[in-house]
Structures are given as structure tokens and as C-alpha cells.
Amino acid sequence: MASLVNICSVNVLDNPSKFTDPFKLEITFEVFENLAEDLDWELLYVGSAESEKYDQVLDSVLVGPVVEGRHKFVFQADGPDVSKIPQDDLVGVTVLLLKCSYMEQEFINIGWFVATEYTELELRENPPTTPILEKLERKVCTDDVRVTTFPIKWVKNQDDEASDGGEVDGLTDGVRELPVDGRTAENQSADAESAPPVRNLAGILLQKVKLIVKADMCAKNFFSFF
Predict the structure, then answer these.
(1) Residue 108, CB half-sphere, CA atoms under 13 Å: how many?
(2) Adjacent-strand bridge partners of 71
(3) Exposure string over 121-148, b if 16+ CB within 10 A, otherwise e
(4) What does the entry list under GO cellular component (predicted)?
């Protein structure tokens, strides 16, 4: 059965911002039929690439009842708890994951790189032993968004065969690009890789070689704001 929900766009508001500021995501989605259950949205911050024990669920929200049509809302969540992040991983690049579930089944997760750095050159060149939170700013890198979709049962009595494989809204299930900054889903190309679980997506995004490249790119873009 084709997906009943299509994520049209996710805009990151107030970006860049202070490290301690809340995350604000403006989410636009469309529903092709009235939904019997609420949509469960969750925002997760990857505290360290080394272990999922440092992952933090920043917040979750139920949206419903949801009727057929286009909808938009702002999902706001407090920043991560610094005490739960390894000190060596506080500054640098990590991943922010937004996922959505229906009837306790995750059908999409969206990943962004997040660059956290000091705004002052002296602190960037000579990082303090103890992080100075008020001097840190973060930037969500919206130029490389990764989306993973999963086939689910949209109807309670739907059999297993109806939910296996196939395409979702014309895009093969897997990792693809998400339209951002107001662009619509039309004319977006699909990157049809195998669909990994949520935490594995973070692991893929944080592969060491890619992390080094992205850290450099994000840092250049980050400091161009000042």
C-alpha cells in the first residue's frame, strides 16, 4: 500500500543559532486520506558517533486528528543536555534526526549534519578544556539532507504482503533527498540505497571520511555568517 503521508518540506528556523537555543523545524506535509491515528514526531540528537547510548530524544509530539490535505506546524524542541554529551564530541559535527511514526511504525526519518563551533577565532584555534557554552553556536547544514523511508501498514487489518516493497509516492524506499527551504517534492531525484534503521542512518552519515569532509565544508559555511 502506498504511503498515505508525504513530507513536502522541513525548514530549519533560526539557523544558525546559539548552542543552547531550542531547535525549531517548520514541517509541511500532505495526507492523502483521513488518518485514524495520530502522527508521532520525534527529534533525536546524536551525542556521539561512537555509541547510541549518547543519543538524546529532544522531544516528541503527537499530531492529530489528521484529515486529508496539506498541513504545516512548527516542531520546537530544547537543545541537548550537555551533561550527556562526551566533552570531546561537544564541538564539531554531529547528526540531527527527525522521524515520524504511525501506529507505532516508523515510516520516515530525516537526517542533517549539525556543526557546532566557537564564534571567536581565539577559542576556535585554542579550544578551552572546559567548553564555554555561551560562546558556542550551531548550524544545521540544510544543503545535504538525507531521508530514509520505510514501508508500513497504514490500515490495521492490512496484510504483510500489502506493505512489503514497492515505491512510496513514486520514490523507491531508501535514502533520498528531501526538498528543503520551501521547495516542493516534485522534480526531486531519488537516491535509491538500501533503507537502514534509524540509528544506522546516523552511523552512515558519520563515517569517518565523510565526517572530515563535511566538517570542513560546514565550518566554511558556518563562519561565512559572521
Answers:
(1) 25
(2) 29
(3) eebeeeeeeebeeebbbbbbbbeebbbb
(4) chromatin; nucleus
- Hey, what domains does the chain have and what are their CATH numbers? 5-223 (2.60.40.1490)
Q: Which amino acid belongs to residue 95? A: V
Dig out the grid coordinates for 147 from the structure. 531521508
Cβ distance 146 to 125 under 8 Å? no
Reported pTM: 0.75
Give, in order, the Cα–Cα distances in Å from 108 to each of 19, 37, 93, 214, 220: 26, 16, 23, 23, 30
d(CA 99, CA 37): 16
Write the pLDDT tens digit of every residue in 79-131.
999 999 998 899 999 999 999 999 999 999 999 999 999 999 999 999 998 88
Question: Who contacts 124 (Cβ-Cβ below 8 Å, separation ≥6)?
Answer: 117, 118
C-alpha 88: how far from chain center = 22
Angle at the Cα of 40 from the Cα atoms of 165 and 199, rounded to 5 degrees? 60
